[in-house]
Design goal:
Blueprint (H helix, E strand, L loop, with lengths): L1 H16 L8 E6 L15 H12 L3 E6 L2 H9 L5 E5 L15 E10 L17 E4 L6 H10 L6 E4 L1 H13 L5 E5 H10 L6 E16 L6 H18 L1 H7 L11
Parallel strand pairs: 1-2, 1-3, 5-6, 5-7
Antiparallel strand pairs: 3-8, 4-7, 4-8
Helix pairs in contact: 2-7
Length: about 260
Amino acid sequence: MLRNLACTLFTGIIFWGFSSEPIADVIELRADDWCPYTCASDENQGLLVEIATRVFTNAGHKVVFRTVPWARAQLEVKHHKAHGLVGVTPAEAPSLIYSTEPLLYAENHWFVKADNRWHFDTLASLKPLKLGATEDYSYGSAIDTYIAQNKTDSAKVQLHISDVSLLRNLRNLQQERIDVLLEDCRVVTVTAQQHREKVALRSAGLASRIALYIGFAPDHPKSKHYAQLLNQGMAKLIDSGELAQMLKRYPASLCQSTR
């Protein structure tokens, strides 16, 4: 009896070890709280995380996502504490591995108070104004250069770290400590609603349209495979219309510029 049981167990172990079922990966993703793209909420982790979870789950894997400050998120991927950085651009982290096509595009706008009639023309039109933006974010090469050249002059540029930047800039705009806020229009829409910020805003023009990716650690053996899964999965989400349905669930009321 014991011999039969041992034989059965041994046979089971052999078959388990050579199972044809693929072993699921646990894919660790990191980003800061940049809702609605990446959100510090277990109920709604954000649009980019929803896309990634759908793609990798369909491929038989599990996604674990956590929000941390942006600089720390970059370090965790660099030091192999996470597989992927969500919402990154190749300009921010050129050494990471990316899919061929982006997951989405961010739309950075110049936001002013509703009664301010200023409208963006060229970067020279910012000269008399005080700009609020986020430390370590990329807004496109021309704007990044302008910020880098003026960030030591608080009369021209004020930067805050990612986890407090937007709320602080919204309040500074309301109190007229800055004149212009640079941020993605969906992020401003959601943050203003969630925190009931009372400042009346309008977009004074589109600043940049930035492709958003998940960047994977360059020396991880499966990074290229994960990027390829994103390529295949995104194509399916677009063709099926599922991506368009996802987008409808996320508000974008401030994504139209007005004069």
